[in-house]
Queue: 2 jobs
Job 1
Amino acid sequence: MIKRRVHVAAAAIFSSDGQQVLLARRPSNVDQGGLWEFPGGKLAPFETGFEALKRELHEELGLTIERAQPLIRVHHEYPNKHVLLDVWQVHGFSGEAYGREGQAVRWVALDELFSYPFPAANLPILRAVMLPTEYLISAEEDDDAVFLTKLERALKEDGVRLVQLRAKRLDEAAYIARAEKALALCREYNVRLLLNAEPELLERVDADGIHLTSDRLMTLERRPIAEGKWLSGSTHDRAQLEQAARIGCDFVTLSPLRTTPTHPDAEPLGWHDFQQLVEPAGMPVFALGGMTRHDANHARAVGAQGIASIRDFWK
Ligand SMILES: Nc1nc2c([nH]c(=O)n2[C@@H]2O[C@H](COP(=O)(O)OP(=O)(O)OP(=O)(O)O)[C@@H](O)[C@H]2O)c(=O)[nH]1
Ligand SMILES: [Mg+2]
């Protein structure tokens, strides 16, 4: 039997403060009944994803979309069909949402999403919804006080919400000391901190997760940290992206998009090759390498979660 292929447009509709998304419950008499979902449905013949999104949100919720951007595309094999979930983030709409087909509809806080039962394909979507569009990677800095001043500026003035502590020049004791201080600051601003370090370090510093170098990523056979923590990794090609998926990374950086002073000899991917790699990755991907916040819209247009950068945030 040939498996049916369905292309579905679905929406992560954000509240105006960005802290909640709108979920709907699938009626009990349909496929995956009773599970919660991002509202949407199948593309009609000759429709684009965005056209289908607008039509479905009007039919299902009575909403008119005003502003939307691609969030993530997820391919998933169900026993009876192959689904492509083409998910958009909606930040502007008019109307008051209600279940026009009798389905339950609910605004849910981002940090409560994991307590709702979703279809199996939805895990990457939940990660994408919970992650911001900017990922700060900290620069080498000898002095802890200077480090903290620059970090606080980025949290306060740039509104950064996700940070990776990268400090290759520090020995273990100095790294731990800096991580404790960075964590205290990040907690004040309600910001997530990932350690670019060995996974075991999470037992010493209770940060939000671990970022793996690509070399370290390739040596692992399974996810090295608990599900409740975030696991990200550095990738540069398809093999590394596949390994990140195999060991259950929550998201990755993919680099270098452009040539940078820190990695002058690395062959840049450019947007075209980057886009080819992103969709099959099956998880949120941050573009890295010469990126600034001006590139964020372009990155999202080719399927990325957003941009990761050292220089654009470190001032
Ligand atoms: N809308 C939506 N569909 C999802 C999600 N996750 C997921 O696996 N799917 C799957 O994608 C397909 C979407 O079909 P649908 O039933 O919403 O399509 P539709 O609105 O056009 O309905 P209809 O064709 O029954 O009228 C289903 O097989 C569903 O299980 C999700 O978060 N939102
Ligand atoms: Mg539907």
Note: The longest strand covers residues 64-77.
Job 2
Amino acid sequence: MTHPAPAIAVSNVSKSFGGIAAVAGVSFTVADGEVVALVGENGAGKSTIKNIIGGTLRPDSGHVRFAGAPAIEGAGRTRHTGVATVHQETSLFPDLSVAENILIDRLRAPGSATVRPGHLRRAAAPVLQRVGAGFGPETIVRDLPAGQRQLVEIAKALAAEPRAIVFDEPTASLNLVERELIMRIVEQLRADGVAVLYISHYLEEVARLSQRVVVMRDGQVVADRPTGELDRGALETLMVGRELARGYPVAPPPRSAKTLSVRELGDDVRVSGVSFDIAEGEIFGLAGLMGSGRTEVARAIFGLAGAVGRVEVGGRPLRRGNVRACVAAGMAFVTEDRRHEGLFLDRPIRESLSLVDLDSVCRAGWLDGRGERRLTDDLADKVRLVARGGLGADGGSLSGGNQQKVVLGKWLVRRPRLIILDEPTRGIDVGAKAEIYRLLVELARAGSSILLISSEMEEVLGLSHRVGVMHDGRLAGVLDRSQATQENVIRLATGGAS
Ligand SMILES: Nc1ncnc2c1ncn2[C@@H]1O[C@H](COP(=O)(O)OP(=O)(O)OP(=O)(O)O)[C@@H](O)[C@H]1O
């Protein structure tokens, strides 16, 4: 019996950057109608492989074949026919319509004539239907919530009718309902015979969707096994090379003094009438569906978005809209958009790490090189930073997850009085997550107050003393740890009574 060639065959692929191997001798296949999960720690080499399969990066040696055929070499870029990629960061044009975004590659094709809007709409409708979109082709992308933009991203990939499709963490920061939708699309693609390579840090998704798991560590494949043979613990151990502690670390009960007091907070647009307190040493989770106003609450506390209402830190009214005053009051804000707001891509990693704590690395106004080295080495260690080129390499050379660890880590050691974290573990691997949870609990134990915003319900429920649930711009209820179950949170988040 002859076997058909696999839809994707990666053979002995190696790639180095500046003499440092990102991936070395990687081989695996994905067959038609198969979902293969690609997992590994931050910096293991997953994105490098994705980019080589997608044709945006050329391997130093080895090759990728699609259904037995090599890629078509063109000037500068390799064209890989039959494979599409759904990226983590959205690549959509916000001011164009859904249909224009979906068909943009064809609109830009040389020799393409002017396209009539009616034609565009008709061409986009079937793929929108295939992803179960509840919006029309003429909707402007900017008006869609993030979860639905991800559907447009997938529809765009499907428009080319690919035989193989690569998903890069498609559910990061989506809520449970939106995640379910994406997973059903993947299941349907598989049933339709499409080959799927699924990159994810969410091991429950890996267990549900994939038939096979390829585990990468330090640029190499360390396991390629049927998913059914690996339980969660075994998979984690393969990924991080050690056994991870189960469950969440427990913070001691909060103290009685209030750190933060928020009254009738609003942003004049989406959020209004939000009131709550956070005590010293308390972890307060903020849950809610995407678009419910969680991020806006955080921004309004910091005075960033035309905020109204009263905010007190340590019993003193906060001078609003003045970020410097907030920082002076001991507040720290780690936003969702960490890569643009906290990391120098073209400066040594060491500088990004030491910047918030300059006082401790400066002696009489001079930068103390040894002090800086000690501080940054310690920090890098604490967040399990994988910087294969050392801390002297530029921030831009780090993998996505490791860039996030830098920005998060530098705030965590500063022991702020109040730290607001928006999606702190997005894109971060299981091992580093465990470290970050430990650091958060340590901060709380030392008396810091923490406002934790996360779409990962398990994380919010596992770490928080209390959980506030947002619905439609209002705080629908606050649940104590004993009442904070997934069902109760979902009920409040979807507009049900507490
Ligand atoms: N342009 C580059 N210049 C220098 N080094 C790079 C570059 N791109 C990747 N690397 C290095 O290659 C290694 C693999 O990175 P890659 O982005 O493939 O990891 P990853 O598994 O996708 O990680 P993450 O889960 O954080 O996204 C890392 O050590 C990274 O620092």
Note: The two ends are 62 Å apart (CA to CA).
